Amino acid sequence: MPLDFASLGLMAGAAFVAATLLPAQSEAVFVGLLAAKSVDPTLLFIVASIANTAGSALNWWLGRLIATDGVERLPARLRPDPARFAKAQGWFARFGWPSLLFAWLPIGGDPLTFVAGSLNYPLLRFILLVFIGKAARYALLWAGWAAA
């Protein structure tokens, strides 16, 4: 199968943005590229998982900025919604590190990664846990597509 850098770039961009606090989804791009068969599925899976984790690492870093500099230092459009932020803080306080395995969830997952940064959760452990959860989600999508 030829190496399609455009498809991989599209997947990386969609996965990265989808993991940030911006509203976006990468699942349709992932399944669409699987269906198009324009790129090796294993490589697509790796790119999606890494890029999605990188987007969450950006959230972690923004959370660290809030912890050290305060929310008012962030641009207005990057400031967290207070209700979602409080909900994510509650999740993290209640469930701790295992909750990071669910950072892929469409509602609550992104603010949760932001909260982990604001609470100074260790970055390497954060990346490992988030990667496991996000890779598992893409693996399930891939398996579902293959079974269809």
From TrEMBL:
InterPro entries: DedA_domain, VTT_dom. The chain crosses the membrane at residues 42-67, 88-107, 127-147. Keywords: Membrane, Transmembrane, Transmembrane helix. Residues 29-140 form the VTT domain. Signal peptide: none annotated. It comes from the Bacteria. The keyword Phosphoprotein does not apply. The keyword Transmembrane applies. This is YqaA family protein. It comes from Bosea vestrisii.
